[in-house]
Amino acid sequence: MTVALILSGVLLLIAWMWLRLAKREVSLPPWSTLEIPELAEDESPLVSVIVSARNEVHNIGRCVQSLLRQDYPRFEVIAVDGHSGDGTRERLLEIQASEESARRVLRVEFSPRGWLGRSAAFQQGMEAARGDWLLFTTADSYHMPNLLSRAMAYARLQGLGILSLAPRLECRTFWEHVWQPIALQYLEFTIPMSRGVWASDAFLLISRDTYIKAGGHVGAAAEDHAGGVLMRRITSLGYRVECVKAMDLLQARTYRTFQELWDGWGAHLYSLLGAHPLWGATHACALWAWTVLPFAVVVPAFAFGFWGLDAVEGWWDVVLAVCAILAVVTMLQAESVLRRVHRQNHLYTATLPLGGLCLGAALMAALTRRAAKEGGLVSEKCVPDADSLPSNEQG
To answer: Helix, strand or coil for residue 13?
Structure first.
């Protein structure tokens, strides 16, 4: 009896979570449909777009060209090459020398100053920038032509100190479809973007004065998610901040292979969900229950709750029937979120248990690596931090 009630309660909670997600995610109008007055050209400040790139030869051309096609009247593009060894530097030189660089594509050679990674690249790019506003972005992003002008007008209209836009993660391979949507939806449920505690490195728009007052990326260099740290600091200074979804105007392909997904999402989840072994283990178990339990229950629930009522007696008959209903409701809501928000084929709903298992296991692996590192059981070279992950990292 007790086990039956606990199982029903857990399934009811999971169904409620997916129902709430579906209501919030699907009902919100796309950010691109909001009516935002355009800025006049004489009211448009110069924006310096700073792109961080390391071993991004397959992405850097698409990213920079999408930035050069922006319809905003005054901007420059600064690409910071972080010692790439795959031809990224040569590709940037080609773009810089081409006619497409009329908007001033400036290539900055990254030189370490005791702290490495994306934060150092952004800081160095800012030092070469001339703009009153700064847009930090990553080489794996793709920007629609009206994105910068719309974001700049929105930031000025709302009086924001910083505006972060969350992209739609491109999923092209099977494992990308399995991992990415469930990871984003779990984060969005546990840490809503509206709280201003995390931000996307794919799009961080901030005024130069605010950036300097907040200490820039220098103070956040040691953090796994410098964008979120920067946003929290700006909030503490009394500025308004926003992180909104712009999935129809901004895209990013963060990871490609299973190994990149494993290392990247494991480190991200561990950092964003508390960076503590107890919290990490708790969230790993929650991920497994959230994605696996409805599918694990539905088969015996249907088998005994509906098709074989004479095989069970008493409470179990009712409990299994209720469990079946809750499991089906959960699957329908999950399918709605994946299809409408992430534009996935509805058949990928069946891979939710696999995605949850992979994410939970990656989180536990990151937890173990971090615990071993802090305990001095392995050397620094053996433990990948967020900044030493594959170059297609998403903040």
So the answer is: helix
